[in-house]
Amino acid sequence: MPTWNALTTCVLATCLFLFSEAGHAADLAADGASTPSAASTTATYANARYGYTIAYPETLLTPGAEADDGDGRVFTAKTGTAQVAVWGRFNAGDDSPAAMLHEEEDGTCTGTPPSYEVSRKDLVAFSCETSEKDIVYEKMIIRDDTIAAVEFTYPASEQASWAPIIEEMAGSLRIAERPQAE
């Protein structure tokens, strides 16, 4: 039986939407819900090494330099302390989605139980509140042996402001299909 806490109640609807197959902000608008949108000021980060892309609101986030190994970058909020990290990697150890989920949770949630988690063959996702009262959402998509991930970290007090941005960004994370060898 799941344990429900305040964070679960606050973010369950966001997580279910965010990590669903149909998690696009346009779906919210079609249902009549109003949500702030950064669509008119969206830029796309494309990672050449792992072949993934993610859209981000350039009016709200400042992209940092790409990591030296070319796996991703960190975006910082233009105001406040929120940050978004994106990265890719190969599943060299052939870890199962469940193993990846627990490894990521252990490193991020540090003893705090997650309020949401899912692991499927093509998706790993979770959220938790850290001891510093930050909310962390992480979504990893899996295609063949390639993993692309996005992690949002922001103060719990800013959840209402960041939820629609997270929905748009996480919904835009994609890994390009590789050409088939002939």
Overview of the structural elements:
It is a single chain. By secondary structure, the chain is an alpha+beta fold. It has a single domain (6-175), classed as Mog1/PsbP, alpha/beta/alpha sandwich (Protein Transport Mog1p, Chain A), CATH 3.40.1000. It is 25% helix and 35% strand. It is built from 4 helices and 10 strands; from the N terminus they run H-H-E-E-E-E-E-H-E-E-E-E-H-E. It has a 7-stranded antiparallel beta sheet, sandwiched between helices. Strands 1-2-10 form a 3-stranded antiparallel beta sheet. Helix 1 (6-18) packs parallel to helix 4. It is globular. The chain starts with 5 loop residues before the first helix and ends in a 7-residue tail after the last strand.
Q: How many domains, as an integer?
A: 1
Number of helices: 4
Main sheet overview: 7 strands, antiparallel
CATH architecture call: 3-Layer(aba) Sandwich
Principal-axes geometry comes out as globular
- Total beta strand runs: 10
Task: Summarize this structure as a short list of keywords or feature phrases.
single chain; 182 residues; alpha+beta; Protein Transport Mog1p, Chain A; 7-stranded antiparallel beta sheet; 3-stranded antiparallel beta sheet; 4 helices; disordered N terminus
Put the structure in a nutshell.
The chain has 182 residues and is α+β, with helices and mostly antiparallel strands.
Q: What is the topology?
A:
Layout: H1 6-18, H2 25-30, E1 42-47, E2 52-57, E3 61-63, E4 72-77, E5 83-90, H3 97-109, E6 116-120, E7 123-129, E8 134-143, E9 146-155, H4 159-172, E10 174-175
Antiparallel strand pairs: 1-2, 2-10, 3-4, 4-5, 5-9, 6-7, 7-8, 8-9
